[in-house]
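Sat 14:20. Reprocessing the chain from the morning session after the first attempt stalled halfway. Input below, unchanged.
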Amino acid sequence: MQKHTISLLVDNEPGVLARVAGLFSGRGFNIESLCVAETLDPRVSRMTLVTRGDDAVAEQIMKQLNKLINVIKVHDLTGTEYVEREMALVKVNAKADSRAELLRIVDIFRCKVVDVSPTHYTLEVTGTAEKLAAILSLLKPMGVKEIARTGAIALAREKK
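Finished this time. Tokens:
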């Protein structure tokens, strides 16, 4: 099954997110990640959602999304050129004997330490899903205590 990254412009009104999520759940489609935020126009929000399915499933999703009243524009970014990023906050054990190695990983992955306690560091990591997976695989042996991820956000690239 192919990953589909879908970008929607929707009216910034109560209930729109519930209608979009309801469309997916009502048809048995799963949303792997979902991010919503206001655009430059406070009356419009951008939703970026990621789902999996074959092209027929994606086409069905697109048609159903276009039928929703509060949906302004729907764009399946799959197969096009686009920029995609995800952000994660990772709380990891920071024992005295592993802090130097932890800070090397922070430097290599160009992430930030955003909170420090005597026993833990909280890291902010931004990048592709692959970058997040790579750093998490290095941090797991040190002891990841908590993680919060945004899910994907994406914008189509401009034509050159």
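Strands lie at 2-11, 33-38, 44-53, 71-76, 82-93, 112-116, 120-127, 144-149, 153-156.
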